[in-house]
Amino acid sequence: MKGRIFSGMRPTGALHIGHLSVIQNWVTLQEDYESYFSIVDLHALTTGYEDRLDFSSLRREIALDWLSVGIDPQKSAIFLQSAVKEHAELHLLFSMFTPLSWLERVPTYKDQIQQLSQQGKDLGTYGFLGYPLLMAADILVYKANVVPVGEDQIPHVELCREIARRFNHLYGTVFPEPKDLVGKVPLLPGVDGRKMSKSYHNAISLTASSEEIKTRVQQMVTDPARLRKDDPGHPEVCVVDKFHKIYTPEVAEVEEKCRAGKVGCVACKRHLAENLEKLISPFRERRAYWEEPGRVEKVLEEGAQRARVTTSETMKEVRCVMGL
Ligand code: TRP
Fold first, then answer.
1. Which Gene3D superfamilies match (predicted)?
2. Is residue 161 pLDDT above 90, yes or no?
3. What is the pTM of this model?
């Protein structure tokens, strides 16, 4: 084992294949690291406190997505953040010595407040200011040394290191300084060429049936200059090609034939749909297993138990050095 990893995702609804590379990265890492993957419902509350989110169905959905892609509960602890109270406890203790200025200068903080205030949401709250501090507590309560995240989260992991340093300086060395591990996330557009998002109805869900895959691929926007099958195509302006680049090993040949006008868009889309089917069908099979009543609940309960073993040890040390 190379060490410990912690990562989390907010439960905000079913995932789509734009999220897939992040979870696949976790699937690889769980082989080499002691892994903790958390559905961070408390983080969802920092921005969605008035939404009355139905966490019981949201957490089930996201857990099923993780399990179907191949997170293995034998190898990784999968659990709900709010089920492991030490996250909240450490967050509170960290808040005692965290300067306000550190939180106010996190790059996304002011931006997001502004953006969401246009949607009528007031994020001038204590909880939202503390978002990255809660994240630091998530990571450090496991003494994780590696944190697989998206690029947008790098400043948060940087803050987490600063918190660890400050704690260690004030009370004695308890925490490692975790490194971020930014996986390659290929940028997949939605079928209409805009950002892939469930709310735009342009996403391919991780649970898509064969029919849905075919329909979505048919909807993909292709080179508008290509009217006839033997017109030369321009893969660089084609959504289908963006997907071939990731899911089709022989993409070079596909692009060459397109440019030469040797394969039409219909056949090219059929080829992609077949590859997406190969990608997604194992997810469907695993999902069918985990969907049986009680299975997800058991995974989350056992995951939380395993998590608590680690977090209660850390908290013992923290309480001791802080004199509590
Ligand atoms: N902030 C992360 C996101 O929005 C989610 C998250 C919460 C997280 N706690 C974490 C990620 C700890 C990594 C480690 O994507």
1. HUPs (3.40.50.620), Tyrosyl-Transfer RNA Synthetase (1.10.240.10)
2. yes
3. 0.93
